[in-house]
Design goal:
Distance between the termini: 92 Å
Mean pLDDT: 85
Number of domains: 2
Number of strands: 21
Radius of gyration: 32 Å
Low-confidence stretches: 2-12, 335-344
Largest sheet: 9 strands, antiparallel
């Protein structure tokens, strides 16, 4: 009888222990999707302002926990947020080409660690874009950490382009057009070395004494001389022996630049380099495709001639406006004007 009671008590204790174990909280499994509500200033008359500066192609994230902090980043009458219950997460970026936020997700990936993912829709437009995306989530706390991950959608490249007209009235700096003005008293010329006497004689008709030297770049121009001369481009451009001729240009700060004949392009990261496409561009515009650069890794080179659709600066701007290139640069005397990428 005693043995039966002991067995019953043991079984009862075991049952209670098992029940207690089932009631214990289970470890949280990560990642966990976090619900959020998008927060927009569209249509309110307010706008984002005074965000921490970033470089082109970069992005940043700000976690905002109070109205006083939100006021630092907004101009105008903005939708109010109940910061007693909510936290606002603001992501923003600066893109050189068309990259528009089109998909957002937020996950709790580990204890006190969150990951915000944003997909950018990639297009060929060269309009540089500042973008912002804000969401409201249940209140986060001081030790909570939020990281940002950006993914760019693949770029759809058409098989053929209708190229814009070349425009040599500007150069690009961080996606902004900086005006160039023609200098009507100075020009840059190239010609076959064997024609130096003929060119010198014809320039004398305009009171110009020619001093020239061999072109020091690329095999394509190995048998050419070049010179910067004090002459109006409109006066001398009709000299038949000139292989290439262009006026000098003046920047807004008064610095004069001669535009050489070479154009360098670098494909965007989202674009697979396609030399057949570059040859197509060359055929459409009467420029000479020289191939991959031996001097600059990742660059491809073109040369302009008097028969091309424009000079090297106009052609560089034209190619950049296709949206395919991170940079398209004309070789200049006094440096290289970087079209959209000053960090090469």
């Amino acid at each position: 009888m005693i043995m039966k009671k002991i067995l019953c008590l043991f079984a009862f204790s075991l049952l209670i222990a098992c029940g207690d174990k089932d009631d214990e909280p289970q470890p949280k499994t990560y990642p966990v999707d976090v619900q959020f509500e998008e927060y927009s200033l569209e249509g309110t008359g307010a706008e984002w302002n005074d965000l921490e500066p970033i470089m082109i192609g970069e992005s940043n994230l700000i976690v905002i926990d109070s109205d006083d902090e939100l006021q630092k980043y907004v101009i105008g009458d903005y939708p109010k947020v109940d910061f007693g219950d909510k936290t606002l997460i603001l992501a923003y970026g600066w893109e050189l080409h068309q990259n528009i936020p089109n998909n957002i997700s937020l996950q709790n990936v580990s204890e006190r660690h969150y990951l915000m993912r944003i997909n950018l829709h990639t297009g060929l437009s060269t309009t540089h874009l500042h973008w912002q995306k804000a969401v409201l989530v249940d209140r986060l706390y001081y030790l909570d950490n939020v990281e940002l991950e950006i993914k760019r959608d693949p770029l759809n490249v058409p098989e053929r382009f209708d190229l814009p007209e070349p425009d040599d009235s500007y150069y690009l700096y961080y996606g902004m057009r900086i005006p160039l003005a023609e200098v009507d008293t100075r020009s840059y010329i190239m010609f076959k070395s064997e024609d130096v006497d003929i060119v010198a004689e014809k320039l004398l008709e305009f009171g110009v004494a020619l001093e020239s030297e061999p072109v020091p770049v690329v095999d394509y121009l190995a048998d050419c001389d070049h010179s910067s001369i004090e002459a109006d481009y409109d006066d001398i451009k009709h000299i038949e022996e000139l292989v290439y001729c262009t006026p000098y240009y003046k920047t807004s700060d008064g610095y004069e630049l001669g535009i050489g004949s070479i154009v360098y392009v670098v494909f965007r990261e989202e674009v697979e380099p396609d030399e057949d496409l570059l040859r197509q561009f060359a055929q459409q515009t009467n420029i000479v495709y020289l191939g991959a650069s031996e001097e600059f890794c990742g660059d491809y080179e073109f040369a302009c001639t008097r028969d091309s659709v424009g000079n090297a600066q106009g052609v560089a701007n034209m190619l950049y406006e296709t949206g395919l290139f991170e940079s398209a640069d004309a070789l200049t005397f006094g440096g290289i004007i970087w079209a959209g990428n000053t960090t090469k």
